[in-house]
TrEMBL record, chains A, B:
Keyword vocabulary terms for this entry: DNA-binding, Transcription, Transcription regulation
Chloroplast listed as a keyword: no
Alphabetized Pfam families for the sequence: FCD, GntR
Keyword Aminoacyl-tRNA synthetase: no
InterPro entries (alphabetical): GntR_C (IPR011711), TF_FadR/GntR_C (IPR008920), Tscrpt_reg_HTH_GntR (IPR000524), WH-like_DNA-bd_sf (IPR036388), WH_DNA-bd_sf (IPR036390)
Name of the molecule in the record: GntR family transcriptional regulator
CDD domains: WHTH_GntR
Residue span, HTH gntR-type domain: 10-77
DNA sequence: CCTACTACACTTGTATGGTAGTATGGTAGT
DNA sequence: ACTACCATACTACCATACAAGTGTAGTAGG
């Protein structure tokens, strides 16, 4: 693998970090995989230093487990942590949607309207990759409209732990139409300033991922702790 | 400075990390202070490597800002981030206290009762350092009783950004008696399973730190961004 | 006197060698 | 055949050397 393209703009460390993180979240490096500094440094054709520093960051995010003098493995998925991550995200998103339903800038609202229109198109064209991106941006816009950028960043950190189990239940089996309907209703709640409705809608929306955690754990036992 | 004592149990990197983090949060390294890897490595009598890896972690937590080839400074306090941290903590603590008021294990409840008794003693003895610790443990127990250990860890991460501004308004000027009364009421809400009361109590409790943020920013302008 | 350039003293970034601890497979001894 | 031991090949950890970029002070030239 060659990182030279990425290297132009950012440091070697950041490039290694991003590639590794992506590979872990995409399950290209499955949970439990043993990796070593030397192995990665050879693979990426860099020295061990930037690799080590990437390991430090990834370990802090809970994606790697480093055992001194023994080795490093990609963290197993912790189903307790996954549920708590969902819990945290639910309550933060609900707190923000309540703010949004109380007051929301007009230009952010119209941005969301455009986003919804693009979601409509993506579903009809079955472009689920773009839809995934639009879903992210939709939620991001709610936080931005409420001036809660840092909160969004924290949610992103938390979501890391939801990501891999979401990846397991292949992206295809999502009911995107239902998802779109929920987004539409959330938008309307903000527009009509209906705090209670927005709150219950978001709670419902966040409970989508609560299911089949045990099912996944049974299906992929070696990926779970 | 010598780290040899700490070195027995943990790695040099962790020792450096802990000391630096402590010094930053205690304002012994005030916001805006310029520090270099070499300077710290000489001071601690270690090589640059573990210092660098500590810097990576601290930068990720937002306590350091690293400018490549130029230098590293202790992050200025971001008042927007402080308020958002308070916002996040409030909603997570409220979500958990509602769980606690719905169902709470008896042994955790009695642990809290013992903690409250010790708080009573500390206030009378004006031992505010221990009181600070007991305050932490009190909230921790609520999370533990609800099996939300990971959520507590995230709250701890978030609280880092509250810590320094709380340190500025010297610990002494806290109304510990009022704090104790709030804790007592929170305990009773859990005991009596009064969800609504617990929620509003915690909201009030979390709003304690909302004040005088602008005052602090005026008093210590060079510490703020 | 003022400007522009250069040399130098910094900084962080990267590469590499050596150290200590761990796991494993093979071998000698029972 | 089985167990205990030892050599070996790993691992992450730490120290050090080198590279590359930045700011500044001092100096030469106008």
């Amino acid at each position: 693998m060659d990182l030279s393209q990425t290297l132009q703009s950012v440091s070697t460390r950041d490039a290694v970090y991003r590639v590794l993180k992506s590979q872990i979240l995409q399950l290209e490096l499955p949970p439990g995989t043993g990796i070593s500094e030397k192995e990665i440094s050879i693979k990426f054709n860099v020295s061990r230093t930037p690799v080590r520093e990437s390991f430090v960051r990834l370990a802090q995010e809970g994606l790697l487990e480093v055992y001194p003098q023994r080795g490093t493995v990609v963290s197993l998925i912790d189903s307790v942590l996954v549920e708590e991550a969902r819990f945290m995200r639910e309550h933060l998103e609900r707190a923000v949607i309540r703010l949004a339903c109380a007051a929301f800038p007009a230009n952010s609202l119209s941005s969301m309207k455009r986003n919804l229109a693009m979601q409509r198109v993506c579903i009809e064209e079955q472009d689920y990759k773009s839809m995934f991106q639009l879903d992210e941006e939709f939620h991001h816009m709610i936080f931005e409209g409420c001036s809660k950028k840092n909160t969004w960043d924290v949610v992103q950190q938390i979501k890391v732990h939801l990501n891999r189990s979401r990846m397991l239940r292949l992206a295809a089996d999502y009911d995107w139409e239902y998802l779109y309907q929920q987004h539409l209703l959330l938008y309307e709640a903000i527009e009509q300033q209906d705090v209670q409705h927005g709150d219950s809608l978001m709670r419902e929306h966040m409970e989508l991922t609560i299911a089949d955690q045990t099912m996944l754990k049974q299906k992929y036992p070696h990926y779970y702790k």
